[in-house]
Amino acid sequence: MPPRTDSEEWPEVQRHVVKRVLEEQYRRAGLTPPDQLSLLAQRDCRAVVAGHQLVVGGGAAFFHHKILSAIRVSRQLTQSMGKPVVPVFWMASEDHDWQEISTVHGTEREHTWTPKGIDHPVPVGQLSLDGMQDVLLTWAEDGVVSEVSDGMLEDLTKARENGETLSGAMRRWLHRWYGECGLLVLDPDDAALKALAPHLWSAEFEGSGIHSVLAGVAPHKGDAHVRENSVFWLDDKAGRIGVVRDNDGGGWRAGDKILNLAGADWPSWCAEHAKQCSPGVLLRPLYQETLLHSLAVVVGPGEWKYWNQIQSAFVHHNIPFPPLRLRDHGVVISEEAARLGWSLETGWLHDEAWDRWVLDRWVEALGEAVPQHESRLLDWHDAVEQWSKEDMDGTLDGPSGALRAATTKAWNQWKAKLRKSLKGTRSQEWTAARRACASLVREGTPQDRWANWHVLAGEHHDSWRQEWLEEECGLAAQVWCFSPDQEGTNR
Question: In 10 A of CB 314, how many CB atoms?
């Protein structure tokens, strides 16, 4: 990912508004913001951005990998470009699919929070924290070191005492984990920020938004669904509702509510109601870059696809498309997996493929006996068929072929029995092999998509974070391999 080489700056109006909003959000929480916030006063300041949902307990490890990547890239760009570059976490506080954010894994099982008030699609950032403490307490007993869990529970208590919702608790957790690294946590569900983007909201209502730009071209059928109107409506009672055509009046409605019933011009109406306009998945990047003009955006593979899906929409709105940088990855290789010889080159193996891989290695470890016997059997087959052709004038070709098929089948059955025998006589080793598989892949999903960073790292989380951030390995995405008892190495 090359940094931008042009002279483009973060526009002063947007930069100052973002700075004021951040100051107010930290002030309301009673938190001292990172020193990097003051850098937003400088004209040449830029941002490296990572955005994500507000996952319980930090969710899967790649949540942290994305943030660590943004911090490391911002530091390296600061050094290489000679200008202040700050890491910003964009809170996806307006998503309303709470099931996607409600589960965190421990060592033995997953722990799920069922928030209250989910009878309608509430933006997750506004969810009450009721029931969260019980989930964190059970999770804390399932592989989380007390230093981490105690701090998170303390933050949760302060958030509840301050009348905060999930977005407030998440800000506190991120500040605890990465505040000293300079991470600025921005909640974009803010009236002052949305007031900077009325052109985005009005374009969707006027029929000149993302749908019109992508209609009839390949990106329209990309990974992310292109809605006719990418704005969602935020209602105090009904929650977050998709905006759809009103078939009766030809305008737009959100649920039962007809929008702009008086027929005002859309730019004026959207400017007045900006706070209630919420961007959908494809409109969110445009809203983000309207505010931040990022020097780089750290994304995962899925985000990479839908950001690139809407490049023409950036051109349409005259918003600079930022350089995208895939997040770094981290893999914790357990002692059991290491003893079996698993490495990144082996790949992510589902259960059946893993079992085959383990048994193949055990058979190989038996030495040359099995392949030698198989080689002799093949030679014998060839000799019988050759004799049939030369001495019997081919009259036994059919029976010779049947003999080969039958003995080959019998040999394969024997090898299957051999593998089954190895499983039975090495039951403890087999159990360890299955644990090794479960530590890397579950239900076909790689480790960093489900395992929690703090559970994986245990007492090493601070040292791993420091090593990750200090490594001088350029701007390209890295894959880090960690062992529970060793330092990490990047690949």
Answer: 17
The pLDDT tens digits of the residues spanning 147-206 come to 999 999 999 999 999 999 999 999 999 999 999 999 999 999 999 999 999 999 999 999
Q: Using a CB cutoff of 8 Å and minimum separation of 24, what contacts does 269-274 make?
A: 269/202, 269/205, 270/198, 270/201, 270/202, 270/205, 271/195, 271/198, 271/202, 274/191, 274/194, 274/195, 274/197, 274/198, 274/201
For 287-370, list the strands marked E by DSSP.
296-299, 324-326, 329-332
Task: Please check the confidence at residue 1 and state whether its pLDDT lies above 60.
Answer: no
- What's the pTM? 0.89
Q: Which two tokens stand for residue 295?
A: 């020097």
Residue 483's Cβ-count burial label (10 Å; 0-12, 13-18, 19+) is middle
Q: Is the Cα dihedral 369, 373, 374, 375 positive or negative? A: positive
DSSP alpha helix (H) spans, 119-209: 132-140, 146-161, 166-178, 191-194, 198-206
Q: Report the pLDDT value the prediction gives residue 451, as an integer from 0 to 100.
A: 93
- 85 burial class (0-12, 13-18, 19+ CB within 10 angstroms)? buried
Arithmetic mean of pLDDT, 397-417 = 87
Instruction: Tell me which residue of 445, 456, 455, 363 sits closest to 412, measured CA to CA.
Output: 363
Yes or no: say if 290 and 320 are a contact pair by the CB < 8 Å rule. no
Are the C-beta atoms of 244 and 229 separated by less than 8 Å?
yes
Q: Is 216 exposed, middle or buried (0-12, 13-18, 19+ CB in 10 A)?
A: exposed
CA distance 442 to 430: 17
Cβ pair 240, 232 in contact under 8 A: yes
CB 457 within 8 A of CB 488: no
The torsion defined by the Cα of 151, 157, 161 and 162, in degrees rounded to 10, comes to 40
Q: What is the DSSP string of 300-316?
A: -HHHHHHHHHTHHHHHH
